[in-house]
Amino acid sequence: MYSSLTWSHNGKVLFERQASYTQVNWPKDKGQLTLDDSLEIFSVQVEDSGDYTCMVIEGARTRNTTHKLIVEDFEYDLHTGSYAFKSNLDKTSKTNSFFPPTNHPSEFACK
Hints:
The chain is mostly beta strands. The protein has strands at residues 4-9, 12-18, 22-24, 31-33, 39-41, 50-58, 61-69, 74-77, 82-85, 95-99, 106-108. The strands form 3 sheets. It has a 5-stranded antiparallel β-sheet, with no helix packed on it. Strands 4-5-11 form a 3-stranded antiparallel β-sheet, with no helix packed on it. It is elongated and about 60 Å long. Residues 1-66 form the Ig-like domain.
């Protein structure tokens, strides 16, 4: 069993779990730690992009696992009636909205 587990996003601590408590520095509707200490992010958004690092301290030993999440914006092209990555759209086309590619959760394991 570990003595400390910490999940961070781009260096900012999101969750810290020790034997006697769990500290949460993230809105409850944004994500959670699962029972197996994986990090689950609800309704992934562009601002969730970045590096997610799990650090586990077991006695004198420290383990780190880093996962990279990339979420890209899409735009709706009124001319073609389809969605495309922002960078792939013709600059002269009219655009209507932006949205991330998924509203599904993402989950990263701490192994």
